[in-house]
């Protein structure tokens, strides 16, 4: 019999500073239908529910170029989707850690679909020509998507650990704290490996008690275990489906990275990035990143 699932504990999500400063335009955290009986309480509206006045006041182009607004909206939208991805991954990670593999499928499937939407957004950005972008690129200064704390938190939650990115958040203690917590905690891949051990597979104890802030090194025992899962999917159906959901995430992340590279090359060619990176040359080095490497390598042996 399966052990009962432990209560799920989500990592805290730091409040958005901008939204915190705009509290008068946002809804109370709790809204009861009965509140409309109070004459001093405005009725619920679409704009109030979504805090549209605050949301639509967050775009502040610095230049006078029309395309800068598109650039801002594309990247702000990505950050909103990353916020949702983090919530879904935290929930799924806690479920996998507690042995509730099947309930985790929903959140993981949702994340892969969000990733697909984010990848499609590069097509919108690519409508901006090199000439369009050059006219306002200078106002970005040294800022870059390379510095996105939420993107790095997503990588940490998946299992792509690299503490070098923490230094970009020294002026944002809440973002830094969230990254540090995700870096130190077991990732989705760490908890999937622990699920193998609970199912009776021979997983080295060192993998279950390692320093989770360090990058995972592909392990033959993990590959062997998941290879057996793939050879007997009916017997290990929950693990098999979990593995395929994880491959979906890796696949979607690879597609996002690939489209990112193409968009950058289309707009700035091989110029250096605004954040000091090598631009497209750096992005090419990320294309082979895999959060769940053993799930890819085992396929050759099937």
Share in helix: 55-70%
Number of domains: 2
CATH class placement of the largest domain = Mainly Alpha
Backbone CA Rg: 22 Å
**Quaternary structure classification:** single chain
Q: Could you tell me the mean pLDDT? A: 90
Q: What gross morphology would you assign? A: globular
Terminus-to-terminus distance: 30 Å
Structural class: mainly alpha
Total DSSP helices: 14
What is the annotated CATH architecture of the largest domain? Answer: Up-down Bundle
Kindly state the number of beta strands.
0
Low-pLDDT stretches are 1-25
CATH topology of the largest domain: Methane Monooxygenase Hydroxylase, Chain G, domain 1
Molecular structure report:
- With 302 residues, the protein is an all-alpha fold.
- The protein has two domains: 16-57, no CATH class; 66-301, Methane Monooxygenase Hydroxylase, Chain G, domain 1, CATH 1.20.58.480.
- Helix content is 55%, strand content 0%.
- It has 14 helices and no strands.
- The protein has helices spanning 17-21, 46-50, 52-55, 67-97, 101-125, 130-134, 149-158, 173-184, 188-198, 205-208, 220-231, 237-268, 280-285, 293-297.
- Helix 4 (67-97) runs parallel beside helix 9.
- It is globular, with a radius of gyration of 22 Å.
- The model is unreliable at 1-25 (pLDDT under 50).
């Amino acid at each position: 019999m399966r052990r009962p699932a432990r209560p799920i504990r989500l990592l805290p999500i730091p409040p958005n500073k901008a939204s915190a400063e705009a509290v008068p335009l946002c809804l109370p955290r709790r809204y009861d239908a009965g509140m409309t009986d109070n004459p001093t309480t405005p009725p619920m509206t679409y704009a109030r529910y979504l805090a549209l006045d605050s949301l639509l006041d967050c775009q502040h182009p610095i230049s006078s170029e029309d395309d800068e607004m598109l650039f801002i909206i594309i990247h702000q939208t990505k950050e909103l989707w990353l916020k949702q991805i983090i919530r879904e991954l935290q929930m799924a990670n806690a479920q996998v850690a507690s042995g509730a593999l099947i309930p985790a499928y929903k959140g993981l499937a949702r994340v892969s679909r969000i990733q697909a939407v984010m990848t499609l957004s590069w097509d919108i950005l690519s409508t901006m020509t090199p000439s369009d972008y050059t006219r306002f690129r200078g106002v970005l200064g040294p800022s870059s998507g390379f510095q996105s704390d939420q993107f790095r938190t997503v990588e940490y939650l998946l299992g792509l650990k690299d503490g070098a990115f923490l230094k970009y958040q020294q002026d944002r203690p809440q973002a830094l704290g969230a990254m540090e917590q995700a870096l130190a905690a077991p990732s989705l891949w760490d908890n999937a490996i622990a699920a193998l051990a609970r199912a009776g597979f021979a997983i080295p104890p060192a993998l279950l008690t390692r320093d989770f802030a360090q990058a995972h090194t592909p392990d033959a025992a993990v590959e062997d275990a998941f290879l057996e899962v793939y050879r007997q999917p009916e017997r290990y159906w929950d693990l098999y489906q979990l593995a395929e959901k994880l491959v979906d995430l890796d696949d979607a992340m690879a597609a996002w990275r690939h489209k990112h590279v193409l968009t950058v090359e289309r707009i700035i060619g091989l110029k250096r990035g605004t954040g000091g990176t090598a631009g497209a040359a750096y992005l090419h080095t990320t294309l082979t990143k895999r959060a769940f490497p053993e799930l890819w390598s085992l396929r050759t042996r099937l």
